[in-house]
Amino acid sequence: MDSDFGIPRELSPLQQLRSQYQPELPPCLQGTTVRVELGDGTTVAEATDSHIMARAFPHTLGQPLAHFLRETAKVSDAHIITELPSVRVGIVFCGRQAPGGHNVIWGLYEALKVHNANSTLLGFLGGSEGLFAQKTLEITDDVLQTYKNQGGYDLLGRTKDQIRTTEQVNAALKACTDLKLDGLVIIGGVISNTDAAHLAEFFAEAKCSTKVVGVPVTTNGDLKNQFVEANVGFDTICKVNSQLISNACTDALSAEKYYYFIRLMGRKHSHVALECTLQSHPNMVILGEEVAASKLTIFDISKQICDAVQARAGQDKNHGVILIPEGIIESIPEVYALLKEIHGHLRQGVAADKISTQLSPWSSALFEFLPPFIKKQLLLHPESDDSAQLSQIETEKLLAYLVETEMNKRLKEGTYKGKKFNAICHFFGYQARGSLPSKFDCDYAYAMMTVKHWSQNASSTSTSIGRPAIHPAMVDLKGKAYDLLRQNAQKFLMEDLYRNPGPLQYDGPGADAKAVSLCVEDQDYMGRIKKLQEYLDQVRTIVKPGCSQDVLKAALSVMASVTDVLTTISSSSTVGGQQFA
Amino acid sequence: MDSDFGIPRELSPLQQLRSQYQPELPPCLQGTTVRVELGDGTTVAEATDSHIMARAFPHTLGQPLAHFLRETAKVSDAHIITELPSVRVGIVFCGRQAPGGHNVIWGLYEALKVHNANSTLLGFLGGSEGLFAQKTLEITDDVLQTYKNQGGYDLLGRTKDQIRTTEQVNAALKACTDLKLDGLVIIGGVISNTDAAHLAEFFAEAKCSTKVVGVPVTTNGDLKNQFVEANVGFDTICKVNSQLISNACTDALSAEKYYYFIRLMGRKHSHVALECTLQSHPNMVILGEEVAASKLTIFDISKQICDAVQARAGQDKNHGVILIPEGIIESIPEVYALLKEIHGHLRQGVAADKISTQLSPWSSALFEFLPPFIKKQLLLHPESDDSAQLSQIETEKLLAYLVETEMNKRLKEGTYKGKKFNAICHFFGYQARGSLPSKFDCDYAYAMMTVKHWSQNASSTSTSIGRPAIHPAMVDLKGKAYDLLRQNAQKFLMEDLYRNPGPLQYDGPGADAKAVSLCVEDQDYMGRIKKLQEYLDQVRTIVKPGCSQDVLKAALSVMASVTDVLTTISSSSTVGGQQFA
What we know:
The structure is a homodimer. The first copy, chain A, is α/β, with parallel strands linked by helices.
């Protein structure tokens, strides 16, 4: 099975050119000297979870944030490390492949070697299974040759996503001990980074000296927080999909007779769909977060699309492009309830063809109403994270079917006077995951490697039952990216302002383009934390022992109300944040 | 409906750069002087059809071929035209959009203006419907600004494909007369160029002075012959699809658990699938022409795939990528027979849900065996060219279903010992048609405009009933491109020699790549015709009156046998050529 891993690949001319590309490193990671400033210990995202988190992560919670500094930075208490011992590090791909994964390995390899030429990097073959079985390939420059800046995970492969059961974590511990690893790097998404956080705690508890590092590589873009602004792979996926969406827009505008219903891969949340909308301006997108927030039923959504089709027909427009994130199906309340019932029965061992007779009356009514192809897909076993098999459920076909039925009804009743409604359905997912990574992802992945231990500190929030897990970040309906969409939604819907970013380029216009949602969001969270600390320091300096009674009195009064206000805001934002949890 | 045609579009940075690109013209089309050599009158492709063709095209058949010459060419009887009168030309998009269509308009506009600034180019809005209704937009440099080198047909739009009925050809005649057109340019594929040929004859018969010109623009690549080596749009489509196929290959190799069944748009024949295979090296492709030639049943094809899956599993490979041309479904003998029966009933007005009871026993048995989703798709009304709605028939899902069933059976019986077979199905079509055109298509389309009247001379061959039509060219199973595939098929199947040409580039490696099937085929048909004429001229010079009896005797004897041999070959190739007609 692993016979093909790491073998040299035949590269096309473009791939050869890309393999020559040297990613850019940020100034703080250049050179052989490491300059680190250790900041405050981190807090948990939700104040109410702090005791659960403290219990789950007694060894690893609350460690200080490490800031890497550029050579010119003047920080008095920075640790300056010029000589590093040789280390042995293992690296493993977990979970779904994302463009840029290979560059994480290459970047780590170069970083290890530049600091100590005797350091060793071992790749585990075949994902977590290879970790458990201790199947390794030593990474060398020769091995990397035809994988630099290339897509896929085929250098090492991947199999299962999980490092979770007692058997699995023990096998991982044994592998790290047997192989004398100083570090274990896990490349993956939300699930794999949750596993990495727990594994780090488990290793610390077991007094294993291997440090566990999670690297956020996922096309879904849902593994982000104050410290992680983007995931490796998201930029490429959105560019490849936007190209195809734009092509469909141009096609729709040329033929003037089709509505394209395009479902996008991206798991539970709608980051990919939002970003692609901002890049290519299709007529409509329905975000899972909007559906959940407004508790829209499947009929509400279908009616919303029908009304849009009717409004456009009123302007003699009988074509359009509508984006459907794959996760939307779980955001629709009544479908979600149905899925939970089905999954419950499946887990109890009920055969799929017997389930329809055991549903609650409400779910049964919905189920019986659905067309056969969707019934079959809803009956599939859930994934390892308990979500439905989103990539297998053709929500775009279901919506196209409902819209067509309704438009035909309106046509018959005379309330709709436009042309016959025609839908073409597409699912864009697998054809983008293996893409050559964009320049952004090449650079970002290559530089990723020194972000250590972030996973077990920052973004973990508790689940109500079971062990704490990293929640996938949802699209922030109060955020700037969503706001940009809302401002333009009506124009996109009616005016066909289609924008074609074109195929992914490596030179010229667009080659250095960043994700729109990344550019509009507030970037400098850490900068603003620093600014706040400066204010606090200034107050401290002014109100030193010896200051006047008036100054002290004013300071006390002001700070009391500041504390009050912040306490109130903190607890209410916690409630708000749980709204869709 | 036409309110949006020709309005300026907002262009992305890459689109803006592309809009600045000036396509290259071949030397013979550069400058303001036109140099033409009129060659022999053309013959029909099939000797046996000559009387049918002569009857159908009394005015337009057998016209001389026009060769355009570069300035430096020394041809004694070349016509040299330095001044051209101002002309009025109409242009219309017919049939499915293909990347590069806009450049045909731009190239024609520039060519008309360079020869006479007073010439006028009128675009018909909304395809043939716009032609009949005389809805025009005068093409100007302003109008073209945001459409140069851009994809789609949205500058003028298109609606119906047909210019065929008496009413339609009369409306076209009236439009050309009313608008005082010297020329009418029809941009389209096989069907539209057949219509163009008949329209030219109809106009000639009616003594209408408008010359009709067909331009071969089709993504299918099936409108080719000795004079037309490629179609505008084919290069782009194959590059966009090859990128996505390669991404799926990389994905398959990374996950090692899926077989991708990818259906490709391309109508009846398998040119797109063949070219994409040569570009991206998937494990397997099944060409419609192979299926027809070997009379493979649906079960033969399914078994062929199953055996491949089993052989790969024997090497611990549980993944793969298989290409399925959309036209394959009509190449399978028993399915074709079923489709013909269904279409016959549909044409007689039988309701779709009643047809299954009226099928012949053999067709009925096949139909009942098929899964419901395919049944529904086979019952769709045929297209205007009598073929099935190929884009709507999910042949890839049918094959994946049959293969899965068979693999599960083999697994149960113990004859297959590999992992459980998993298929993921895709259809690549609509998402490529609207793409930004490749450099090749930009240049080719821009230069296309002076190929006049080819359509009604060369590639028309008769149909057995009804009017003569251009047959779409099929993949030549004796050609070099197919031979290249056969030589590599076993290696592609077993060794995962996936090749990723990457996203369509406009600069650097790959930007100037031509289609593999174009590069390996004999290119210089006209050059070889010229060479033959030189030989004949030499014989004529040697055997002039006054030559010796011996020379004359030898020449007569040799030429008698040459003529014999060529006559025999000609008639047998005609029979061979009709094999799949």
